[in-house]
Each structure stands twice: as structure tokens, then as C-alpha cells.
Amino acid sequence: MSAILQVQDVSKSFGGLRALTSVSFDLPEGQILGLIGPNGAGKTTLFNCINGVFLADSGKVIFRGQDISGWKPYRVAHLGLARTHQIVQPLNELTVLENVMAGACFGHEQTSLGRSQEIAQEVLDFVGLAERSEVLAASLNVAQKKRLELARALAARPYLLLLDEVLAGLNQVEITEMLEVLREIHEQGVTILIIEHVMHALMNISQQVIVLNYGEQIAAGTPEEVANDPVVIEAYLGDPKIAERLMGTDA
Amino acid sequence: MKPWRRPGIWLILALTIAVSVWPLLAGNKPYAREVAFTMLKAMALASSLNLLLGYTGYVSFGHIVFFGLGGYVGFYLISVHRLPLYVAVLAGALSAALLAFLLGKAILRLRGAYFALATIGVNEAVRSFIKNFEPFGGPTGMTLNFRIYDSYGGANQALWITYASIAVLTVIILLVSFWVKTSRFGLGLMAIRENEDAAEVMGVVAPSAKTWAYVLSAAFPGMIGVLFFFKNGNIEPGDAFVLHQSIESIVMVMLGGQGTVLGPLFGAAAYQRLRGFLLVSPLFKNIQLTVAGVLLLVIVLFVPAGVIGWLRHRFPRLRRVLE
Amino acid sequence: MFDFVVASLADGVLLGFVYGIAAMGLSLIWGVMDVINLAHGSIMALGMFGVYLTFNGLGMNPYLALVLVAGAGLLLGLIIYVVAVHRVIDAPHLSTLLATFSVDMILLGIGTAIFTTSPRNVDFTMGSISAGPITLPWTRIAAALGAVLVAALLYLFLYRTRAGKAIRAVANNRAAAELMGIPSARVLALSFGLGTMLAAIAGGLISTFFPFTILAGGAYQLRSFVIGVLGGMGNPLGALVGGLILGALEGIIPAFMETSWVPVVEFILFVIILLVRPAGLLRSKT
Fold first, then answer.
1. Does the beta-carbon distance from B198 to A85 stay under 8 Å?
2. Chains meeting C at 3+ CB pairs closer than 8 A?
3. Residue C200 is assigned to a structural domain of this protein
4. How much is the ipTM here?
5. Tell me: the pLDDT tens digits for B137-182?
6. Which of C77, C34, C188, C32 is nearest to B112 (CA)?
């Protein structure tokens, strides 16, 4: 299976702060890759370097065989990459339907308005927001806004989906529902790169996991391998509960 | 849904046509025509500004510069080169569009407040430039030789032709505004307005979308300028680049409801009526600007969506009719 | 020619000090609360009228009148903040921009009604001093000194008083400041008032140089913006330095082209700086 995304030696600093140092990995097509690490490890920065929001100081990002280093976010989107944000970014004064239509219109399929509306309605059904299509995005609650964010990304029918803490703030039932949705997306052939702090969920759904700490990659492997890696446990050592969770020894 | 099936368009067209046709039915036709001309001009300018301010979310403070520049170019072609009116109008559109294009390249990458600041200076800068520009008459401007009206069948006929032209132009602007609002292009603009970064992540090519919005919002004032100054018979820097008129356009758009098609129409009509009332009263004549300022402040603080916007929020069922 | 340029340059630099004070006012408000005060110019014009009225009406020395004008400027700023700005302080930029813009219109409207547009003049001279090719009116020198004094006082206020520290805290991180018990609304009002106070003082000083009308503020407002981005919005020291640079530039330009080109040149400069270094040539404070 070829790698749909190749991150090669990506580094990024902000003034004196080294946010990312020589991060490298390949993401095979059709895989779900989890990205974990303590707060401030550089996970969202890595996302921003991949989809063009930040310009990496050095290194390359190759997506679907093209070197997209330094590309503007819209060019990257046109190649078939979609992403959600850690802090949701709804288009407030537009309706839920219009939000998702925007995702469909401007993604790599560049669909017409009419077709976008059809796609949007399908996607809203899929994520369970169909009843709220005509409300303004601003009036949704946080969990609904997260689903809207996901719906907008899905409407673009991406090859690669970058999810940034899409489960944060959800209760157990909502998490289980969301994981189901993600599995279905995966079954349709979408490659997923997911940042998550809800550890058990991430370990549950990922096929491979990468761990960042202080901008450096400290471990990579299957969820089991990573959970038992002493380096990883040490990185999280400040919170023994996480270590327990990683090792699967919590209740 | 195809644009013509949306009921909102018919209300907009009906209002515009009603205003345009009124002078034909009025008693004192020339007077009514002048009043209607001013009204249509306000509606057209406000609707053009709305493309940038309402749909894209970029405030342009010096927007009158396009009216002035287009007016100058068109006037020059008519006065000095004896070109026909419609050629001059096109030239006005093109010159304003070109200025917007070049300016946009420089300043559209500035976000929000900085872009607005840049537009303040544009008006002053262009006015200074024109004042020093001899071919356009320098500080004294240009005056039209009245003989030119003869080629239009006399002064009276020329005035009616100009009037018909601005009525048609206003209708076109409104149709364009409606088309933008219901098109893919418009959706991109509104995404930019709501969250430019998120829009880019979604794939909206913000730089080119904004440039097109700016160019479109400039071309129409350019045309209106030509019509206005042709009718006026003379043009000078002091008349062409009146910052005050930019301000009034902003008030009209905000009062009526930015981001809607009907809003600028309504806002222009309401503001013009208010202004007419104020000018007659000796007390308020001098503080016209103050009244406009208070109005704008109240809108910004309490009813930011404007009258039409507020109605749409309050009565969702009316949304189909109040576009 | 050289003599002319040197004289013009010296004159411009002195004027630049005053420009710096005006820009400081704008920059302070921008730095503390992310608001661009579009009423800046008209407040400067009101400062001019303040000195004019007290000088002509009460026979007061303009420099004493400045103290009154400063107080009035502070008060006006507090009122403007409470009435027009506070409600939309957290709204998108467009709202505060339009809010201060409407205040500008209101002030200009009232000002025009009361004062009309006929030019006024503060007929106050203290003679001049000559050194070689340069002849400088004492009013210019006094204004420059006054500007330096005001800047120093502002610095002391911001760095040596509790209120000043509170302002810097709010400028740095409003949420955190509130958590530490700082009443941010009052601090913001005070900052706005200080900003308008500086504008009024600058206007008052300028009234001793040139004739003016209520509409004179516009050109100075543009200069304040240019200086603000030149020195970095939110950076008072940068504003002062930027003011000197702009003053110097204005001194040199007339040697090479008509003064009516000045707005064009300033505007182009403005755009260039915004494009090349939006953070200003000196680092921004925040």
C-alpha cells in the first residue's frame, strides 16, 4: 500500500521556541493513524504544517505524490485533504446546510451549488445533524458544532482527513457514536490522521500510533506497542492515570 | 433553486422599477426625475458597496474614489474626445475596475482593520493626484461644452437618456447582487466574511475571490460616476471625491442590512428620505453628519444586522421574500 | 537649496515630535484593546479648538491651556468608550471600527455646526531663534519639548504607577488580568481616555503652528496611522520615533515636489509598510 502522506524531516520554530523537530513518518493509504502527545507537544502545529497554514522551516510534506511544502491551504484542499480544528471554526451567520455546502463546493471535487446541496444533505444525515439544516451555525451547542466541523470536512469527499480533537467535550455516548461514524468513513476508503486526548478512544480506533513530545517524535507503532513503551509512559508520567489507561490496566 | 424562482427577486425588482417609473407619472416631471435620479444613485452605490462590505466583510471607507475616477475618465472622453456616452460609461467601469484590481493586489492581503485604514487614504491620495493632473483639468476640473448635449437631441433629452441609463444600471446592479448572493462565488465570499482562515482551509481561493468582489464593487460606481457628471455638465476634484458620500453609502448599507440584496435598497431609500427631511429643517441642516453618525452608532451597537437583517432573524418565514 | 532642505528638515523633525504624541495616542488604544480609533482626527481638531477658545476667550497662555485641553480630552475619551465602544469591544473588528467611525461623524457634525468651516488661528508667537541657515520659531521648540515631556510622563505613568501596570497587564492578556482582579472595563476606559488625551494635546500644540478648521484632523489622522504602522501599533516609543521619521520626510519632500503630493506619498508609504512589515519597523510591544 503506497503512502498517501509522507512527512519528511519537518521542523518548525516560533522565535526561540522549537515547536517541531525533524518529524518524519509515512501514512499508508487507507490507514487510521493516531497522533498523541502531552499538551504543547506540537500536534496541532504538525497539522498546520501539513495543510499549509504554517510554512515549515525545513523538511517536506508529500501528499498523493506531490510535494505540497509551502502550498497555500486552499491548494492543499484542492488536492483532496480536509481537516477539522481543535477550536471549532463554524461559519456563524450561515446555516448549517450552507456551512456544509461550502465544504463540498470548494473541496477537490469543486462541485456546483446544486450538487453541493445534495452532498451536504447526505452528509448531514450521516452525522445526524439533518434536523438542524436550516438553523444558523452560531446557535448550535459545542457537540453539534464539532459534528458540523466534521460534516464540512466530509462534504469535501477528501482522500485524507485530518481530525484535531474531534471528541473533546463529548460524553461517553457521543464518543461511541462518533467512533462509529469514523469507522464508517474509514470503510469508505478515507485515510485518517487523528489527534486525540481521549486516550482509550484513540487507541481503540487507530491502526498505528505516533507519539510526539516537545516537538519530537518519541515513539511509533501499534497502539499496544506504544502503550507499553517506557519512553511514552515517562512522557506522560505527570499523570499516572494516563499511564494506566495506556497500559489498559484502568477499570 | 434557480434565481428567478426565488420570490425575493421579484420584490426587489418591483421596488426598483416603481422608483424608476415614478417620474414618468409624476406631475412635475423634471423635478421628480432629479429626485429619483438621486435615489437610484444612492441605491446603486449602496448595493455596489454591499458586494464588498456585506458579502465579503471588508469595510471600504473610501469607496467613492471609484465613482470619482470613473466619472473623470468618462467625462474626459466625452468632453475632450467627443466619444458617445455609452463608450464613456464602459470606460468609467473599466478604469474603476482597473484601479480596484491594482489596489486590491496591494491591500487586499491586509486583514480587516488594516484594509479599512488603507482605503481611507486611497480617496485622499487619488484626489491629490487628480488635482495635479493637468489633462483632467487640475484643480479646476473640466466643464462640458453644452453643444455636446445636441448630439443627444438637446439638453432635456440628454437628461432623460441619462436617467433611463441609471435606472437600467441600478436594475442590473441589483440583479448582479442577487446573482452573487445565490451563487457559488457568493458562498465563497460569505465564507471569507465569516472566517477567512477556515474558508481557505476549505479550499476557497480567498485572494482571487476578494479581488473579484472588489473589482465588481468598483466597476459599478465607475459607471454611475460617468452618468452623474455627464448630467452635471462639469467635474472637479472637490465634487468627485467627497468622502462624505462614502460615509453615507456605509450608513445606507448598515441601516438597511448588510449582506442582503434588499437591505442597501431599503437603507438608501430610508436614508435619502431622512436626509431630505433634515435638509428642510433649519435646525438639522448643519448636523446632518451628526445624525448619520448617531444612526450608524445605534445600528452598530444594537441592530448590527440592519432593518432587513433584523426582520429576517425575527421572522424566519419572511426570509424567502426578504432576500 | 541645501540650506532650504536643512531648515525644512529641522522644522519637520520638531513637528515630528508632536506627530509622535498624536500617534502614541492612537497606538496606545490599539495596543491595549485592539481598537482603531477613527475619531482620532476629530479629537485632535477639538484639541486645536480647545486651545483657540481658551487663548482667545480667556487670554490664557496656550501651554497652560493645554492642561485644560488634556483634561477635556481624557474626559471625552472616557465618555466615548463607555457610550460607543464598550458594548462592542469583543465583537469582530468591523464593529468597533464602525463605532469609532460614527463617533467621528458625530463630532465632525457638531463641530461644523458650532464652529463652521472658516479657518481659525491661534495668534501666539514667542519669536524665533536662528542658528546658521536654520530659523526656528520658539513655538516649534516649545512644542517639541512639550511632546518629550508628555512622552516621559506617559512612560512614568505606564511603568511606575499601579494604574499604568494594570493597563499593561490588560494589554498583554485581558482574560488573565481579569482573573487577577483587575477591573478590565475601567482600565480599558482609562486607556481610551489616555489615547484621546494625547490626541487632544497634540492637536493643541499644532494649533500654535498652523491655521485650522474642524476638518483639519483628517490629514493628521492619516499621519498618525502611517506613524503607527511605521513604529508598530501598540508601541509608544515606536510611535515617537516614527513621528520623527515622518516629520523629517515631510521636511525633505517639499524640496523635491509640490506639497500637494504629500498625501499621495504618505499613503504609498503607508501601504508599503503595511505590506512589508505590518508589525512595524520596531517590534510591537505585545
1. yes
2. B
3. yes
4. 0.89
5. 888 888 888 888 888 888 888 899 999 999 999 999 999 999 999 9
6. C34
